[in-house]
Design a protein that fits this description.
Elements (H helix, E strand, L loop, with lengths): L3 H8 L4 E2 L2 E2 L1 H31 L4 H21 L1 H12 L1 H19 L4 H29 L5 H32 L2 H22 L16 H27 L5 H25 L8 H21 L5 H8 L4 E2 L2 E2 L8 H22 L6 H28 L7 H29 L5 H22 L3 H4 L1 H21 L1 H8 L4
Antiparallel strand pairs: 1-2, 3-4
Helix pairs in contact: 2-3, 2-6, 2-7, 2-8, 3-6, 3-10, 3-16, 4-5, 4-6, 4-16, 5-6, 5-8, 6-16, 7-8, 7-13, 7-15, 10-16, 11-14, 11-15, 11-16, 11-18, 11-19, 13-15, 14-15, 14-18, 14-19, 15-16
C-alpha cells in the first residue's frame, strides 16, 4: 500500500529527497533548525547558571547547576507525553508541530531578555513547545514510510537523525562563542532566530507532507476533553499551591523544585505504562509488543542518564580540567558540544548503509543486540572518563589534553548510533496505531527519566571524585549491556513480527 506522501510526491513529478519521500526535506530542515536552537541554548545553560544566576559558594553553584540542567532536560522530554496526547486526540501532529515551534521561538526570545526572573519563564516556554514538537515531528517521519520495509524506515530515521546533528554541530560554535565571549543573552537570542527559521521552513514545505499528521489518529470525545482539562487544572493547582505555601513559610529553596521534578520524572512513565496496559484499546496481539517496549525503555533510561551528562559534568570537566589552549588562545568550553554531532554526521550514513546491507544478506543484528551493544559502548565511554579523571588528578596543572574528551565522545557516538535512530524507528513499529504519538512520547520520556535521575546522580561526583564516579557507572552500564544481550531471544519473541 502506498503512503499518502508517496502520492503527493507523484503529483510533484516524482521528486525525492536523497531517494526518500519529498516530505522528508520539510521535516529534515525543520528539525535541523529546531535542534540548532535547542543545542545552542543547551551548550551555554550550565555555564550561564554557574556564572551568576545561582546564589551561594562556587562549589554549591556547580552541583546545583548540574542538577538543574539534568532536571530541566527531564522536564523538556516529559512534556512529550502531553504533546503526543494533544496530537493523537486533539490537533493532529501537523498542527502540534507548528504551535510547538512558535512557542519554542517565543521562549528563546524571552531568554534573550537580561532578567533572571523572565529567564526561567523562557525555559518553561521552551519545555512546553518542545513537548508539542519533538514527538510529533518524529511520528510524522514514520508516517512518510507507511507500508514500506522496516530497513527503509530505519534508513529514513537515520537520515532524519542527520538533521538533528547538523543543527547540533553548528549551534555550540555560533551560540557558544557569542554567549561565552560576547553576551549570554545574545547567544540565547541567536538560538531564537534558529527556531524562527524552523517555523518558516515548516510552513513553506507543508504541501509536501500530503495527509501525514493532518488529523488526530484517535480523536477525543467531549467527555474525555473535559476530564483531561479538569485533571490538568487540579494537578496544576496543587503544584502552584505547594510552591506558594513553601514561599509563604519562608522555606523555599530551588532544590525543592529540582527534587519534586526529579520524582515526577520517575513516577510519570510508571503511571503511564500502567494506564496503557489497562486501556481497553490495547489488544491481546499488541500487549506483548508493549511489554518488549518496556524493556527497551528501561535500558534507554540508563543510556541517556549517562550520555546526557555531557551537557553538565562533562561540560564542567571541559571548562575546568581540560587544556583548551591553541597557540595562546583558549577556545570556549561549549565547543566540545559540537564534537558529538561531527562524529554522527560522519558515522550516520555508514551505519545506515551497514544496516541495509546486512539486512539484504539476512545478517543484520536484531534490535535487542543493537541495544546491548549500545550499553557496552556507553559504559566504555565512562570507563575512559574515569581514566581522564585520574590523569587530571595526577597532572601538575590539574588538566588533561582534549584527546581524552574527544575519545569519550567518539565511543558515546558509536553507542548512540546503535540505540537512538534504531529506537526511534522501533517505537513507530511496536506502537499500536491508536497510540503512535504517545509511544513516541514515551520514547522521549526515557530521556526525561534518565535526566531526572541526573538531578540526584550528578551530585555524587563531588564526594566520590571523577575516577570512582565514572568507573562506577561504567560497570553498571556494561553489566546492563551484557544482561540485555543475554535476553535478546526472549525479547524477539515478545516483539513478534518486528525485527
Amino acid at each position: 500500500m502506498a503512503s499518502s506522501t508517496t502520492k503527493a510526491d507523484a503529483a510533484n513529478g516524482g521528486r525525492t529527497f536523497f531517494g526518500h519521500p519529498r516530505g522528508m526535506a520539510t521535516l529534515f530542515m525543520t528539525e535541523m533548525w529546531e535542534r540548532f536552537s535547542w543545542y545552542g541554548m543547551r551548550a551555554i545553560l550550565v555555564l550561564y547558571l554557574i556564572a551568576g544566576v545561582l546564589d551561594g559558594p562556587l562549589e554549591d553553584r556547580e552541583a546545583l547547576a548540574a542538577a538543574i540542567y539534568g532536571v530541566y532536560n527531564a522536564v523538556v522530554y516529559m512534556t512529550s507525553m502531553p504533546g503526543g496526547w494533544v496530537a493523537d486526540r486533539l490537533w493532529g501532529a501537523r498542527k502540534a508541530v507548528l504551535v510547538g515551534g512558535v512557542v519554542i521561538a517565543s521562549g528563546h526570545y524571552v531568554l534573550a531578555i537580561p532578567n533572571d526572573t523572565t529567564f526561567f519563564l523562557g525555559l518553561g516556554l521552551i519545555a512546553i513547545g518542545t513537548g508539542l514538537l519533538k514527538p510529533n515531528i518524529s511520528a510524522m517521519v514514520g508516517g512518510l514510510y507507511e507500508g514500506q520495509s522496516g530497513a527503509r524506515r530505519d534508513a529514513g530515521f537515520t537520515l532524519f537523525y542527520m538533521a538533528i546533528n547538523i543543527g547540533a554541530l553548528a549551534a555550540p560554535l555560533v551560540v557558544g562563542t557569542l554567549g561565552e565571549n560576547v553576551n549570554w543573552h545574545l547567544g540565547f537570542g541567536i538560538a531564537g532566530v534558529g527556531m524562527t527559521l524552523a517555523v518558516v521552513q515548516y510552513v513553506l514545505g507543508a504541501r509536501h507532507l500530503g495527509e501525514v499528521g493532518r488529523h488526530p489518529a484517535n480523536p477525543a470525545t467531549p467527555e474525555e476533553k473535559r476530564r483531561v482539562l479538569n485533571r490538568t487544572l487540579l494537578w496544576s493547582g496543587i503544584a502552584v499551591g505547594a510552591l506558594v505555601l513553601d514561599v509563604a513559610l519562608g522555606t523555599f529553596d530551588i532544590e525543592h523544585v529540582v527534587n519534586a521534578l526529579a520524582v515526577l520524572g520517575i513516577v510519570l512513565p510508571v503511571g503511564y505504562f500502567w494506564l496503557m496496559f489497562r486501556s481497553p484499546k490495547l489488544t491481546a496481539q499488541d500487549r506483548p509488543k508493549i511489554v518488549a517496549f518496556v524493556w527497551f525503555f528501561v535500558t534507554a533510561v540508563l543510556f541517556w542518564m549517562i550520555y546526557d551528562q555531557s551537557g553538565s559534568l562533562l561540560t564542567i570537566f571541559a571548562d575546568q580540567k581540560t587544556d583548551r589552549g591553541i597557540g595562546g588562545w583558549e577556545f570556549p568550553a561549549s565547543w566540545f558540544q559540537s564534537v558529538n554531532p561531527v562524529y554522527v554526521i560522519i558515522l550516520a550514513p555508514l551505519f545506515a548503509a551497514l544496516w541495509v546491507r546486512l539486512a539484504q544478506r539476512n545478517r543484520e543484528p536484531s534490535t535487542p543486540v543493537k541495544f546491548g551493544l549500545a550499553m557496552l559502548l556507553i559504559g566504555g565511554s565512562f570507563g575512559l572518563m574515569g581514566l581522564a579523571g585520574a590523569a587530571a588528578a595526577a597532572s601538575d596543572t590539574g588538566q588533561v589534553t582534549v584527546f581524552w574528551l574527544l575519545g569519550v565522545y567518539l565511543v558515546q557516538t558509536l553507542g548512540e548510533m546503535c540505540l537512538s535512530p534504531v529506537g526511534l524507528s522501533l517505537s513507530t513499529k511496536l506502537a499500536p496505531k491508536q497510540f503512535v504519538s504517545q509511544i513516541m512520547g514515551l520514547w522521549f520520556l526515557a530521556t526525561a527519566t534518565g535526566n531526572a535521575l541526573n538531578g540526584w546522580v550528578t551530585r555524587l561526583n563531588e564526594p566520590l571524585g571523577d575516577t570512582l564516579y565514572y568507573t562506577m557507572w561504567a560497570i553498571v552500564a556494561v553489566a546492563a549491556g551484557l544482561a540485555f544481550t543475554a535476553g535478546a531471544r526472549r525479547l524477539r519473541v515478545l516483539m513478534g513480527d518486528v525485527g
